[in-house]
């Protein structure tokens, strides 16, 4: 398989979908809309929506009688996850947090639009993610017909409700925001392995994991399927974050698109600072193998397996 080509096709698709859902830059509030659109359009690997799409495809293949996979209906969620992820980066770069001026190879949102707009653009992205995800609901009362041929409206809308609940729980205080809180409070302090695990599991794994779960739920997965998928998100997320720690030490600003040595500058205790590079690389490989093994249980999951392997050696 030509992973580069497969990946780039999916990135192009996600970028087109995003451009269809992003707000028009108009009205007296246009500055915040420009800042919001800038932060999304300035780059990004689109990893989370790509994982969501793949998981949706796998479960549609497994459960749908209608083999023509309707992907349009999950587009609102592909956008919502990228909006939440981008808001977290915009806020993480603010002077009150990491105070970084370079992200995705370009000036950070607050560096370009000012601090107040950086705060507002992050807020707006989070709110707009809800507005966008809600577009996945169908309205039989309005059309008089079931919207999709393979599933009645009530069943589809139940899947959408489940996906909403998962998304906003994992992005919140019991997920990403919770992890970031502990990360901020513990900056400069020594951390135990359990504390590092806690921070990584919430700050990084939560969004990666929920991307896979949402794709599954929308594709018809049941509770048992979801429980089986939890470790997949965990291993991909942990490997991804530890690789991020490694790159912060070994990469260059040009390659990474953001400053290197940021963890050291901000006095952050990371997996890599506790265990060193060699053990970090070993752990990334170990978690990657575990994730690939789980993915290999799915029929047609070659792309997912190749993607997981690629992430272990990614350079940006
Ligand atoms: C401010 C509420 C709040 C949360 C911030 C996610 C996060 C918490 C901060 C961002 C910085 C960081 C180290 C996040 C961990 C996850 C991570 C490595 C994000 C970078 O994700 P990529 O590489 O970014 O997928 P692109 O730019 O490719 O989308």
Briefly note the structural class of the backbone: mainly alpha
Major sheet: order of its strands? Answer: 1-2
Q: Give helix % range.
A: 55-70%
Series of secondary-structure elements, N-terminal to C-terminal:
HHHHEEHHHHHHHHHHH
What general outline do the C-alpha atoms trace? globular
Number of strands: 2
- Compute the average pLDDT: 94
Strand content: under 5%
Low-confidence stretches: none
Output the keywords:
316 residues, 70% helix, globular, binds geranylgeranyl diphosphate, 1% strand
Q: In words, what does this structure look like?
A:
Helix content is 70%, strand content 1%. The protein is mostly helical and 316 residues long. It has a two-stranded antiparallel sheet. Helix 3 packs antiparallel against helix 4, helix 3 packs across helix 10 and helix 11 runs antiparallel to helix 14 (271-295). The longest helix has 28 residues, at 223-250. The protein is globular, with a radius of gyration of 19 Å. Residues 44-45, 47, 88-89, 91-92, 104, 176-177, 180, 203-204, 241, 244 line the site of geranylgeranyl diphosphate (GRG).
Please summarize what this structure is.
With 316 residues, this protein is mainly alpha-helical.
């Amino acid at each position: 398989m030509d992973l580069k080509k497969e990946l780039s096709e999916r990135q192009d698709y996600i970028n087109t979908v995003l451009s269809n859902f992003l707000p028009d830059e108009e009205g007296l509030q246009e500055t915040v809309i420009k800042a919001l659109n800038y932060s999304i359009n300035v780059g990004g690997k689109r990893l989370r929506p790509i994982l969501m799409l793949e998981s949706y495809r796998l479960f549609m293949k497994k459960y749908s009688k209608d083999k023509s996979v309707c992907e349009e209906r999950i587009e609102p969620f592909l956008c919502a996850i990228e909006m939440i992820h981008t808001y977290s980066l915009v806020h993480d770069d603010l002077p009150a947090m990491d105070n970084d001026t370079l992200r995705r190879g370009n000036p950070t949102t607050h560096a370009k639009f000012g601090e107040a707009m950086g705060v507002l653009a992050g807020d707006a992205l989070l709110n707009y993610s809800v507005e966008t995800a809600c577009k996945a609901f169908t309205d039989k009362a309005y059309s008089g017909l079931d919207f999709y041929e393979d599933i009645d409206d009530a069943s589809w809308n139940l899947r959408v409700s489940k996906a909403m609940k998962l998304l906003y729980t994992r992005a919140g205080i019991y997920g990403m925001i919770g992890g970031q809180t502990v990360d901020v409070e513990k900056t400069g302090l020594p951390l135990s392995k359990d504390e590092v695990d806690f921070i990584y599991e919430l700050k990084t794994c939560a969004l990666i994991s929920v991307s896979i779960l949402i794709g599954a739920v929308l594709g018809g997965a049941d509770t048992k399927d979801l429980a089986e998928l939890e470790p997949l998100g965990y291993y991909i997320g942990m490997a991804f974050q530890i690789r991020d720690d490694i790159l912060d030490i070994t990469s260059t600003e040009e390659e990474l698109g953001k400053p290197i040595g940021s963890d050291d500058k901000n006095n952050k205790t990371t997996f890599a600072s506790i265990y060193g590079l060699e053990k970090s690389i070993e752990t990334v490989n170990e978690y990657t193998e575990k994730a690939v093994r789980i993915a290999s249980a799915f029929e047609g999951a070659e792309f997912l397996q190749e993607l997981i392997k690629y992430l272990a050696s990614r350079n940006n």
